[in-house]
Specification:
globular, alpha+beta, five-stranded antiparallel beta sheet, 3 helices, 18% helix
Length: 146
Amino acid sequence: MAVRAASGIRPLGLDTLVGLQRRMHAPGSTRRLLVPDGMTAPLGCDAVAVPARFGPLVMPRLPRVGCVYADEAHWWWIVPSDSDYALEWPAPARYAAGAVVPDAPDVPGLIHRPDGTVPYTPPIPLYLALCRLTNTTPTWSRPVSA
């Protein structure tokens, strides 16, 4: 696959192809978490969902909390796109590329909006808080298997 550039044809890189593939989703009842009016998402948006019982435990562990959405079952944190790169988010967390909430009858409601115009929760502190709460060793601290 290639795209036409001003100087001819430029092949698409693997990163671009992977990003495009990850954002494709099967038809069905899916909803996207939208950034509130007045906010911008220059790095794109993905989301990390955790069961609702973990939500109140995660919030005080974060140095900055971006937009957080909730429904009866989950709390969703907005993170920059590709925040799952080289990370295995600990179960029962779910990573949602494109901030798409699968099989949701309604879009979760916004329960926290940060000051300023950027909707992101920093992904590494969120990842570490979830690792701590789930008693999971962070990816980079695990032994390398032979």
